[in-house]
Structures are given as C-alpha cells and as structure tokens.
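If you are new to this repository, start here. Below is one unmodified record pulled from the training split, so you can see the exact layout before writing a loader.
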Amino acid sequence: MRQTRIYIATVLTFIILISVKSTSMAAVSVQHLQCEMLNNPQGIGAITPRLSWQIKSDQRNIIQTAYQIIVSSSPQKLALNLGDLWDSHKVISDRSIMINYAGKLLASRTACYWKVKVWTSKEESGWSQPALWSVGLLNAADWKAKWIGYEYGFPWDSVSKFSRLSARYYRKQFQTTQQVKKAVVYIVGLGHYELYINGKPVGDQVLAEAPTDYTQSVLYNTFDVTTDIQQGENVIGTVLGNGRFFTMRPKYKPNKIKEFGFPRMLLQLELTYQDGSKKVITSDDSWKFTADGPIRTNNEYDGEEYDAIKELVGWNVTGYDDSKWLKPELVESPGGKVEAQMNEPIKIVDTIHPISIKQLKRGIWIMDMGQNMAGWVQMKVQGKRGDKVTLRFAETLKEDSDLYIANLRDAKVTDVYTLKGGGEEAWHPVFVYHGFRYVQITGYPGAPTVNDFIGQVVSDGMANTGHFETSNPLINQIYHNAYWGILSDYKGMPVDCPQRNERMPWLGDRAIGSLGESFVFNNENLYAKWLNDIEQAQKPDGSIPDVAPAYWNYYSDNMTWPGTYILIADMLYNQFDDKGPIEKHYPSMKKWLGYMRQKYDKDNLMTKDKYGDWCVPPESPELIHSRDSSRNTNGILIATAYYYHMLLLMQHFAQILNRPADAQQFAAQAMQTKNAFKQKFLDKKTFQYDNNTVTANLLPLYFGMVPAEDRKAVFNNIVDKITIDAKSHISTGVIGTQWLMRGLTDFGRPDIAYHIAANDDYPSWGYMVKRGATTIWELWNGDTAAPAMNSRNHIMLLGDLIAWFYQDLGGIKADEPGFKTIIMKPSIAINRLDNVNASYNTPYGLVKSDWKKQAGHFDWAITIPANSKAIVYLPAGSVNDVKCDGKSLSALSGAKQLPDVNGKVKVEIGSGDYHFEINNYGK
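And here is the target side for that same chain:
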C-alpha cells in the first residue's frame, strides 16, 4: 500500500517536530517526537506561533493542495475534532511551513493541542497524531516570584581582577496536601543554574539559561515537573553559578567590560491539584541559601574548583538541616524584560574518549583527547581525603610536550578537584567550559589511564541537518574540522572561540559563515535570538556594536561587522523561509543604515571601516596582520561596497514587507553609491579596482557594482591575482573569503575554487590539517604567528567555504525561500574530484545529491522532498544522452524540460527519488 508520512512542527523561534506515518486514506500514527524546547513544549513566549509540517511519500510529484489545522484546549476535544481554539477548515494552499496561528487569542499558560491533515496531488492523508505547545508567562503580572540573591562575596571569595566567587546553593521546602494534577516551574538563574526537585535534576540542559545583555532581557526556562512532585513534603533546590552575569573580569577594564552584579534568581513553581485548586511557590526571602558548598569558584575563563569534602549531603531533599543557612536578600531585577528562551538549550551533545595519557614528569601527565573540542572532562578518581587533582587545558603542546598556553592570554583554564576519600569518585564541572585538545593532569593518585576520563562536548542542542563527503580525504577532513569548530562555538550565542579570555559574539565572524553553518546545524533559532541581542545592543542614535550582546563596549561604527545584522536576517529568510526576523528588525536595520549614512563623505563614499579585510595571509610567518599595502584592501572601498550591498538587501526587505516608498529610496541611494564607487575605484584602462587585491575586485563584482561590459575583465584580474600572484592560494581575509568560493564558481571557475580548497601548503585550510589541526585556526599562519591571536578553534576564516561545499560541490541551493524550489546544479568540472555525497534537511524534508563520475560516465542519485520541486542541471549535450532509472528522460512522468543552459540539459522535476545516468557527459 502506498505510504504518505506527515511531519508536523510548531515553529516560532523553536521547533517541535513530530514524525508521523500514514497509509493512503488511513489514520496516522506517531513515529517520532522531538521537542527542542527544553524537552517539553511548555513556556512558549508568544501567542501567535507558526505551524509547519513535512510530508513524506514513496510516490513522486507530491504537492500539497490543501490543509486543515485543528487546535483544541484539551486532547479530548482534539480527538473529537473540536477546534475550540482554532479550526482552519480546509484551506486551499501548497504552503506547509510557517503557517500563522489564527485562532482565539491565547493567554498565559494556555495548552494548545493540535493536528493537521493535508490533501495532495495524489491523495488525502489522515490526521496526524497530536502535538502540543503551551503559552508561557507573557505578562509581568504573571510573575509572583521575587528576585533573590546576595550582593556580597564571602571570606573565601575574591572580587577582583581575577575573580573567585563560589556557587550559591538555594533550597525551599514546601508541602502538598493532595495529589498534583500538573506542576510547572519557571526559572531564571543568573548567570547559570542547576535545578532539582526532591533531589532529582530537572532537564538535561547545561550552562542554562542562554546569555543576554541582562539589562535588556533575561530568559526564563520552563519545565513540566508533574511527575517529580510527591504528596507531602517536597524540596526545590537550585545552584547558581556566575556565567556571563557575574563578569569574568570585574573591576578589570570598566570602560570595556560590562558588569551586572552578583548571581540572582527568579523562580515560580505552579501546582494544580486534582480538584482544580492551585498553589504557587515562589522565590522570596523565606528560602535558605549558602555559598559554603563544594563549588568554591567558577569562572568561564579560569575554571571551576570543587571541594568534595564540602559536599552538602542531602541538601536538595527533605529532612536536611538548613538552620545554619542564611536568608537570601530581595534584590533588584537586572533590568531586562523577562522573556521565554526560544533557542535550543546548551547540552552535552557528544562524548570523546582520550587517545593517550603520557607522563611528562613525576606527578604530571599529559592527556590527548585526539580532537580539539569545547566542554569539559569527566574524571574518575580514587584516593585519600584531601588529595587534589588539577586539570589544566590547552589546544596545543610545546616542543617539550607540555601545554602551550601563551595563546590563552590570562585565562587560567584550570579545574581543581579535592577528593573526599572513601572510594571511587566521579566529577565534572558544571558552570564552566573549556576549549582544548590536551589536558595537563597534576596530583592524580597513582597513574591515570584513558579509562579514567571522558570528554563531554558542550554545545547548543540543535539538530544536525547536513551530511557532506567527497572522494578527496583532505576535503573531508577540512569539513570535519569546520564541523568541530562550529560545534565548539555555539554557546547560546555564536562566540568567536572557546578557549582564551575572549569567547565573545563578534558579529563579523558569522556574517556569511552562518549560511554555511545552517547546512550543518539547524541554527534558525540561535540566529533569530542573536538578532534580538544585536537589536538590544543598538544605541538610541542607531549605532550597532561589533560584539553583541555588548559585553565589550566596542562601537566602532564600521560597515562590515554590524552589517551582519542584515545579512543574517537575509539568511534566515532564504534558508528557512522565515520572514519574521525581517519584519521584527526592519525598523532597527533601517535606523542603523540611516546612522551610517552620516558617515558618507562629500564624494558619496562610506568612510567608516575599522578592521579592513581582517587577517589576510601575512608576508612573514610571525606576523598577525600583513604590513604589505599591496596585500591589504582599502577600507573605504570595503565599507562603500558593503553599504551598497546592504542597501540592496534593505530594498529587497522593503519589497517583501510591501513598503514601496522605502524600496524606492534604498534603490536610489544604492545607485548613487554605485556611481560614486565606480568613479573613485575603477581604473577603466586596467579594469582593476583600487590596488587590485582579490577582495577589492571581488566585492564589486559579486555585489553587482561592475558595469556589465567590464565584468569579464574584472574577473580576469581576480583570476590572475590568484593563479599568478598567489600561486593558486588564498589571499583574502575575513571579508573577501566570505564571497570568494561562490564568486569564483558563479563566474565560471569552480576549478580555481577547488584548487584553493584542496591545497595543503601555506596558506590554506589544508595546511592547517597538514599541521595537525582538528578545527579551523584564527590565522592562516596560526602555527607561527605571535601567540596573542592564534586561537586554534576559530571559524571566521571559513568564509563561504561550507556554503560552497553544499551549494556548489553538492549542488543543493534554494531557488525559493525555504527550498520550496531547489536548484540542483553541482560543479563537476573539477579534475581531482570524482564523487560528492551531500544531503540537507530543508524545512520541507531531506534533499540528497550523490554524484559520481568515472571514465566518461556520470551517475547522479537525487532525492527531492514532498511539496518541493527542483530545477536540475544535467551535464549532457542533449536530452537523448540522459537516462533516469534506466529509461529515457522523455519517459519520466511529471518532468518538464526547460531550455538548455551552457551545454546542460535543464529539467524541472517534482518530489521523489531519481537516478540519472549520462554517458560522455559534458562539464
């Protein structure tokens, strides 16, 4: 029997996914449930979520023709098809993602049970299995809890340049008089928290909640704890760590580093009894707390120290004597609006086993994890009471095999565990993380072995959406390194690095990198949240910082770093068909461009640039930045080109939002900028822009600023600079590399792009691999440059490489937002590449592209998800040279032949699995 499966999702800035399976005209059944909002659908911070579903079928050419959504206030009503909250009835539409809820106005705490059925070009589905979302606390009046904390350090603490602040332990005992029907807890724990009910940890999140500028917003997490509440006596226990709230370097550089204060908490537990009565337990000064527990200090830069002798046995269960504990203070709110966290929580997403432990000298051992990573190690140890094991972390080793820590600056990156004795003990830190491959172990009783340690990888718990591999092992290793770099630098916001005393959310690092990342991880929610961080960091005059949240006071008013604000909104629209960020942030983006327009000079050029083409390969191995003017690109050129590109994007946004007057204004400003740029920088004799760097020529070419009749000549200059001057190696920095690989390919030279990608000598990504890297470096010469800036886990130099892997080597590219229509057009004219196997889980479902070429034969397996279609470019001279599933292409049902393009057969196909074969294929 034919099968159709529907995957349904509730989407706002989080996703609930249900996989369901149905047979033709039959009832559907749940196959898989995944909720990426703290493992439950509670606490959604909006009243108009957007609903999405995926359709899967073993038939081809499946297009949705209509849908019906029912939303009910109870599962019983939903089962009876009573949509007391919303019944869309049958809606004629092929749209299956981002459907706005349009039912009754939802109040705080409303539970919404929903299901969907669809009509397709082939058949009608049955109803999906139910899904659930719940509205969180939408109004300030919903919060009955009070902020509690303690505004002082303790004698064992140190509030100084290198702060040492112990964790704070809180408990509240309460009684339930009857059986609980439902229990929900809402918590803000700043900077990080652990939550327990009757001794049981709640949730599997770590380093919760996501960081923000706490003066602008604070995020709460929501948990259904119904099964954790027992009739009679109960205890809520929390532990507060410092995180980004108690600043890593307080009183260090007050004009640079933003401070927030001592840790504090807001908590509300709402109980509903079987008879419908309610009880609320809130944070207030009736709680008890102590800081004299086992976590003696925790600091993201410096590490965590844990004294097991000080463990508070039974502190988070009933019957514990807390008579000597203190009463917390009622403290001020940090000032920010309390909102639901809508991006995925940080979790332990993987584990790594060390590959070796070697003795460096008496009592000192060096452990190699085999992979540069971000997280911590869990240790097993047995020894005497009071023994101390010290773990220090680094990315590389010195020649004497000891840790190389010069590149960590003043981050101490050290964990200390004091044993309580009496048997085997297991421990890992909870309020810090480290970026490392190597661990120096000191004071371990006896000889440690690899079996005594496990690396726990800590990152945002988002789904892995892509797969990419080729016939070239070096390319595969570069992709591996990129994957681990991206994974390392997700921490509730995208940070630049996980290891030194920085770990900051630099905007410029992710401008186009976010696009490549979106093929690897489902990063929609993270980047939607980050746009909120950027907007909250905007000053009243429109200025946007280079780091957001603005933990560092860097408002340099340049075009390239803040321009990420607009570029990521564009990425979210194209990759996920998410118009919400454009709608929400359009006024702030427009305000920023208006502010930057004041930086125009009399010649209509943008004068503000701070970083240039950051980190071009320098002329000497010890240099961080090139001093050779012929390698560096004019900052005014970069700023003006970017300003033009931002104007065009804003023109597009205005058209999406139906603001024709704005669109016209942006277009006029763009034309003015384009003409001024050409007048200033283009040499009409040589067709070189300014000093003829690759970046100087590439930006105007890629952005469409070059006159049509000059494009070939300008591109030839780029080719010559790469192939002759740079000997087919990369010569761009952070800015140029964001457009390089796709630019070369779009203008007909994917072979040069591939040569750059496949190099293994300096400067290249392959050089990093050859030198033992397992992640991406901050500098092309990260093994030789001065240590102040040679992080070995930095992804800003990836540029558009990962996007190029998927879009051009794999041949998977969105033609319509969200991949409603997909361009399948791999670049196969590369002599040293015989196979690429790529897949990507689009909002509509999984796209696959697996091509092979051998001895004049081209073989290509394609999968297109239901409710999508694809424009496929086949490297054949004519339709007669192509077979699909062993038959002529003309026999393919539902296919539509389009006019050939550049010697390629162009065909439109619907959803399904296809196997194309071409003999004597073209390039």
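Two things worth knowing about this chain: The CA atoms of residues 728 and 755 lie 7 Å apart. Residues 1-41 have pLDDT under 50 and may be disordered.
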